[in-house]
Every structure is written in structure tokens, then in C-alpha cells.
Hints:
By secondary structure, the protein is mostly helical.
Amino acid sequence: MAEQLSRRERQIMDILFSRGQATATEITGRLPDPPVQAAVRTMLRILEDRGHVRHHKRGKEFVYEPTVPRQRAAGQALQRVLNVFFDGSFEAAVAAHLAEHAGRMTPEQLKRLSALIRQAKGKRGLP
Length: 127
């Protein structure tokens, strides 16, 4: 999925990743400033031709789903954000997020983050 998607294609893919699967009607209903449904169906065909989605038939409608597992797509999306906004630095991204949201994080969330950091250190053999 390294190829660039248009803004509308990205919106469609975001809907499919968040829902798991959807019909053209469902997608159209969730798009901001939606185009006509025929345009959404055309974009879905293009996404399918390019290998981003597949479909199966349910009754009279096609149900579309991403071809890439959500977890893998999430990793790819995160890497794009890191590259574009943080020069590829995970540390810079986490620092920016903490600077913005630390005051709103619950003690449980902070405890889980600390545990994840300890776990990552253990995997690297660090104290």
C-alpha cells in the first residue's frame, strides 16, 4: 500500500479499516461532503483494481473490505506520520504527544505506558 491514495480514496479506506467492511451505501453515508454513490462505487472499483480492497456479494449489494490487515495498515500509517511530521523519530512523536496530552492522561494510562517502556527495555536487554 505504498502508493499514494487520493484524499477521497484515503477517506474510503479509513472507513473500511474502522468498520472492517462496508457497502458503497454505508461508505457514502460516512464520507464528509459525500459525492454521489456512483462515484463512490467507481472509486471502490479502482481501489479493488489496485489491490487495496476486495468484495463479496451480500444480497443485492457488494460488501467491500481492505485486503491488508488493520494492524499492518496501522503500522504503515504510523510510519507515514512519523516520516512526515517527526523526521522518522518515534521518540519525537511520543514526546510531542505527551507534551500535548500528559495532563489529561489517567494514572492507569501512565502506568500502562511505563510498563510498555519497561517491557521494551527488557526485550533490548537494557536495565
